[in-house]
Amino acid sequence: MQPSAPVTAHERHVERLYARGVENYGDYGAGYLNFGLWENGEADYVRAAERLVHRIGELLGLAPGARVLDAAPGMGSQDLYLDVHFGPLEVDAVDITRLHVEHGRRKAAAAGVTERLRFHHASATRLPFAERSFTHALSLEAAHHFDTRGRFFEEVARVLAPGGVLAMADFVLAREPRTAWQRALLDAACRLWRVPNANVDTLSAYCRRLEAAGFAVTSVEDVSERTFPGYYREQCRPERRREVARIRGFVGGRIGHVLNIAIHAVHTARLVDYVLVRAERRA
């Protein structure tokens, strides 16, 4: 593994966004941070979160022995899930939030899989790995933060072997804002969520960036109505809000709720979609 590059100013902002209260999480929500895939009247957050992770594993076509890159794995729960249900796997996970990396390492140690599941404090746009190191790569609800997503696609193309598979759970611009209010709403949500302007892509632009980096897009699924509403309901539950306030503190809890309101608002305004994308590295 090559040494990682220094953290940029944007990455420090993203790290601060996600680091608040991480030391207090314990195993709350089984350590998941994703929106979840809410199907068949599901009401339990952990099951919805794991359903989303499982869907990514299916898109990747994971099987024992796969060499997997996970870009921004949160606190590592998704990698342990994939290893149990699709593995054993060889996983290298990179995250810019150092406390997330420490959580992931502790989880891997507790499960006795530190030789297979490795967590690195590094940037997804400057991956510290050699060319053709991996057979599969994923990024679950993280690439919108990267500076930029296009650079990440280029880096993944570099470290994936030809024919390797990339699966993304990501956000795209559903349509351009039609009014000044909609533009202001979208801009505010992007600022709050630390999304660079370069990442505000329509689906067609998103796919063009993948193709320019050396990928062939093989499937796209819009799961907006199975992600945004269920996640927002979960985040608004009084019990959930009290627990988040305990973990992140009063101010952190309020900030988190404002972030959730912002993402709910851009979804209900039909400005942002949630998509699952599969692509293959061209030879």
Helix percent band: 40-55%
Strand content: 15-25%
Tell me about the largest β-sheet: 7 strands, mixed
Structural class by sheet pairing and helices: alpha/beta
This entry's quaternary arrangement is single chain
Q: What is the name of the CATH superfamily?
A: Vaccinia Virus protein VP39
> Averaged pLDDT, please?
95
**CATH architecture annotation name:** 3-Layer(aba) Sandwich
Please state how the strands of the largest beta sheet are arranged side by side.
Answer: 3-2-1-4-5-7-6
Please count the beta strands (DSSP E, at least 2 residues each): 7
Domain unit count: 1
End-to-end C-alpha gap? 23 Å
Apparent shape: globular
Count of helical regions:
9
Radius of gyration from the CA trace? Answer: 18 Å
Indicate the topology.
Elements: H1 9-19, H2 45-60, E1 67-71, H3 77-86, E2 90-95, H4 98-111, E3 117-121, E4 134-140, H5 149-159, E5 160-173, H6 180-192, H7 203-213, E6 215-222, H8 228-236, H9 238-268, E7 272-281
